[in-house]
Amino acid sequence: LVNNAGVMALPAREETEDGFERQLGINHLGHFRLTQLLLPELLAAGKASGDARVVTVSSEAHQLAVGGVDWDDVMARRSYDPWRAYGQSKLANILFTTELERRLPAGCGVSAAALHPGVIQTELGRSFFIPKELCDAAGSVNCKGQLPLWGLALSAPLLLPALLFSRTPQQGAQTQVRLAADPALAGSLGGAYFSDCKKAAPSAPAQDAEAARR
After folding, report:
1. Is the pLDDT of residue 143 over 70?
2. Segment 53-68, tens digit of pLDDT
3. Which tens digit of pLDDT belongs to each residue from 170-184?
4. Strand 2-3 and strand 198-199: pairing?
């Protein structure tokens, strides 16, 4: 199971049909619920093959959630910041992975990992990096157009080099493909966090075992 749905930096607070803050709902709670629903099948696959995996795409942006999860305002009803909300959702991915691994029965053949895929040339940034006036021309789906035209002009010297050094979707998929399919990792993901196809250390809040249990 690869959990890879996501939205990023929605300019104004939105809610899902279930009443969740939209970034947390899509980026984390949807993955949590899908994994929960599929857990019997995952456990059956782990028993049969010894190697079922849950791979969740997080991001280095989890570090934007400075201080960890805001338990007093998880749904950002009192105060909403697009990047703080995104970072919290990505932090939740890592905490979820850690706790899932801890709760899985020993020897069940199921293991879990979270990962940072890198900066990828996709439409994930459509709500922030594309001016509203260019949304239709860019063919962007559900574009929020947060960046004004003058902002695009001013930031071009920074955005263009970033685009040149960003990864293609094929390159960006390498870490999750390895975690999902590399025989060398069978049964041994261990709830770890990966970046560039190898283990990496997430932020201190992402290593908070008590927060993961919550």
Report:
1. no
2. 999 999 999 999 999 9
3. 988 999 999 999 999
4. unpaired
According to the model, what pLDDT value does residue 169 have? 83
- Distance, in Å, from the CA atom of 52 to the CA atom of 30, rounded to the nearest integer, reads 20
Q: Give the torsion sign (CA, 109, 115, 117, 123).
A: positive
> In 3D, which of 88, 82, 81, 80 has the Cα closest to residue 64?
88
Mean pLDDT of 90-115: 97
Sheet holding 110-116, edge to edge: 2-3, 52-57, 110-116, 192-195, 198-199
Strands (DSSP E) found in the chain: 2-3, 52-57, 110-116, 192-195, 198-199
Query: What residues act catalytically?
Result: 86
Q: Is-contact 7 59, C-beta < 8 A?
A: no
